[in-house]
Design brief:
The chain is mostly helical. The chain is built from 12 helices and no strands. The chain has a domain of 91 residues: Ankyrin repeat-containing domain (Serine Threonine Protein Phosphatase 5, Tetratricopeptide repeat), CATH 1.25.40.
């Protein structure tokens, strides 16, 4: 709808007008606003009473470090999915994941799996070296996505390997 389009595009004036005119506002409006080019729409939505959710922080984590830090500064709660989204950034960077982790965001084995799935070796190494759990899914995703660097790292550092995958060197 109109409010979703305005919030996800970062068009604050259009968003304000649409809300003032009574346009429907989706329940997850802050999620779309968290990945807009600026956080102006999100800040406006919070100021008029719309709630931030863990999905809001996950959306911001996919966009940029600036967005995640901005959402966090607004008091947004987060969950493991924020780290999953941060690790799955294709930027070959771990800065978003590092920010989330250093500020208390929980993570689980899905974080390492997400990094392997997109070949984000820096995020995989950061997560593993800082105690993030991993499981066979990390190895499987590295194989399925043909990310040899992630597969080699996981294998050499003891990540469990699915029984049907043979990673022995011939």
């Amino acid at each position: 709808g109109t409010t979703y389009a305005a919030s996800s595009s970062g068009h604050l004036d259009c968003l304000q007008y649409a809300i003032e005119q009574g346009c429907p506002v989706p329940e997850n409006i802050t999620v779309s606003a968290a990945s807009a080019p600026t956080l102006d729409c999100l800040q406006y939505l919070v100021s008029v009473g719309y709630k931030l959710t863990p999905a809001t922080s996950a959306s911001a984590a996919q966009f940029s470090l600036k967005h995640l830090a901005g959402v966090h500064s607004l008091g947004c709660h987060w969950d493991e999915n924020t780290c999953v989204k941060a690790a799955s950034c294709r930027a070959s960077d771990a800065s978003i994941l590092q920010y989330a982790h250093e500020h208390g965001c929980p993570w689980d084995a899905g974080t390492c799996a997400a990094a392997a799935r997109v070949g984000n070796l820096k995020a995989l190494v950061y997560a593993h070296e800082h105690g993030c759990p991993w499981d066979e899914t990390t190895t499987l995703y590295a194989v399925l996505s043909d990310e040899i660097n992630c597969l080699e790292y996981a294998h050499k550092h003891g990540c469990p390997i699915p029984a049907d995958i043979d990673v022995r060197a011939d």
